[in-house]
Specification:
With 92 residues, the protein is mostly helical. The protein has one domain. Helices cover 86% and strands 0% of the residues. α2 packs across α3.
Amino acid sequence: MENIDIVWGLVILFFGVILFVFFGQTLTKIVKSAWYGIFYIGVGAFGLFLFNLLLQTFNQHIPINLITSLVAGILGIPGILALIIMKIFIIV
């Protein structure tokens, strides 16, 4: 019974290596894009945190969630200003 498990393990490993050889470049691009997305979300959340410290003097705040962090991370300062404008004029 143990020989069958070893054989199946080797077969799965072989197909995994073959798939990685054929789709290796695509996988690295996907992982790289995901890493940049996570990085931008983190930077956006930190930027929103700093702006919330500044807006605290005016009794305002912008909620820090996935969407606002992504907007602030990708667009930077203009994105944070757009979030502030939306908060003031649309959400009230």
